[in-house]
Amino acid sequence: MTPSPLLDELRAIVGGDHVLTEGDLTAWEQDWRRRRKGKALAVVRPANTQEVAAVVRACAATSTAIIPQGGNTGLSVGATPDDSGTQIILSLARMNRIRAIDRDNLTVTVEAGCILQALQEYADKEGLLFPLSLAAEGSCTLGGNLGTNAGGTQVVRYGNTRELCLGLEVVTPRGEVWDGLSGLRKDNTGYDLRDLFIGSEGTLGVITAATMKLFPQPAARLTAWAAVPSMQAAVRLLGLAHQHLGAGLTGFEVMGQFALSLVIKHMPQLRVPFAGLDGAPPYYVLLENSDSESEEHARERFEALLEFAFEDGCVLDAVVAESLSQAHELWHIRESIPLAQAEEGLNIKHDISIAASRIPAFVEHTDALLAREIPGVRLVNFGHLGDGNLHYNVQAPEGGDAREFLRTQEERVNQLVYDAVALFKGSFSAEHGVGVLKADKLAHYKSPVALSMMRAIKQALDPQGLMNPGCILQK
Q1: What beta strand segments (E) does 242-282 contain?
Q2: pLDDT higher at 56 or 299
């Protein structure tokens, strides 16, 4: 073991087996996309909130930086140490208990290291619904979801993680514990500290537990796949879905033809409706209707929506899943796009949000701009149209050297895309967080007034700058 008074103290707090300094620490030191690999002084794995607080106090006393980490599935390098070998990775993985459920209040209190899928399954066994759903749900943790204010496929009905959270337990940079685990839906007693920590990516403190909302299970859930003639038609269909389904509209995803062609190419076992045909439409929509009455009622409303959409011309063809397994197959196609894109080669990812009404104009403008500036570039456009969030990704020209493309063109592509996002009054970071990867972009695109307030908050809560330094706000 490495001789160090700090490491000895940390071992005394959490146990020697839970202070990792030797061997291969890549699982903690490298981000999920393998964009960065750092070197930590140690990986520390506390078992409870009191141990987290003691670890933070020990680090604060020695001015040692702390990188909070959940499932390490982030896409913006927000939980990766630098290469100095002086920072502590604080892994919350052992803190994975579901502490309590309040069925009458429709809430559950959960520790930050709980895997999202485990929380979903627990709620389901209780006959209730925890609606947060995203591709990494089998490995991401609730703390990470809160730290980045994760979105996913159900935001159009239930909102981001922020809207699902009623209270937090947080260890401050001083090692104090704030118990804000309230199940209250109304509490106007000063500043909303909960919302301050949600989305802060571990830069203001360590989220150790949360009280989250639960919902009744819907009586029926139906999924449809629709081919549409344009992005404008997809937005038109979204409006009709809101009109016909109301709060029953729980998911509304859009997928470009090229994105689906990659799924067909690399995952031929998946049957993609309509997309493999000659003259296939440019866009497809996957929409979900959850109904509180019955499957018959849900199907009637769905069929009425699609009939109206056909007459309106915003839908060219559509299929409604006839079973739960068929619905899962359709969602699996959508969720396979990032994997198919990875199989195609290295790519430039964007996580942007724009008002849904402006998305067609943004896509038309930016598609043409990139085609003109970088001939041969391929666009993998898909995402959560229901809440205005696109994953507007850029693939290297076919047959080209993808690694060289990233090396020489990534900054240029990012500038073109983010300038276009700003032109259409959007955000360059919708649900993946800013992390370290996009901290320089925040400094460029965020207003000086907003940045000044953010720095003031950071200085007030973390005057030593020890919590996840370089994340969100540049050093």
Answers
A1: 249-256
A2: 56
Alpha-carbon gap, residue 159 to 243, rounded angstroms: 18
SS3 145: helix
pLDDT of res. 353: 97
- Answer positive or negative: Cα dihedral of 392, 395, 398, 404: positive
Number of Cα atoms under 13 Å in the Cβ half of residue 326: 12
Dihedrals φ, ψ of 344, to 5°? -70, -25
Q: What is the pTM assigned to this prediction?
A: 0.93
DSSP states of 414-461 as a string? HHHHHHHHHHTT-BSBSSS--TTTTHHHHHHHS-HHHHHHHHHHHHHH
Cα distance between residue 224 and residue 212, in whole Å: 29
Q: Which of 307, 302, 300 shows the shortest CA–CA distance to 286?
A: 302
Partner residues linked to 101 by β-bridges: 108
For 120, the token pair is 């979903």
Residue linked to tokens 């909130």 = 49
Q: Which residues pair with 226 in a beta bridge?
A: 285, 318
Chain position carrying tokens 């701009």: 369
State residue 3's pLDDT score.
Answer: 67
pLDDT in tens, 119-148: 999 999 999 999 999 988 999 999 999 999
Those residues with Cβ within 8 angstroms of residue 160's Cβ, 6 or more apart along the chain or in another chain: 149, 150, 151, 431
pLDDT, average across residues 409-434: 96
Q: What is the pLDDT of residues 264-285, one digit of tens each?
A: 999 999 999 997 666 789 999 9
Structure tokens at 113: 């290291």
Sign of the Cα torsion 464, 146, 110, 140 reads negative
Q: Which distant-in-sequence residues (6+ apart) come within 8 Å of 307 by Cβ?
A: none
pLDDT of res. 474: 85
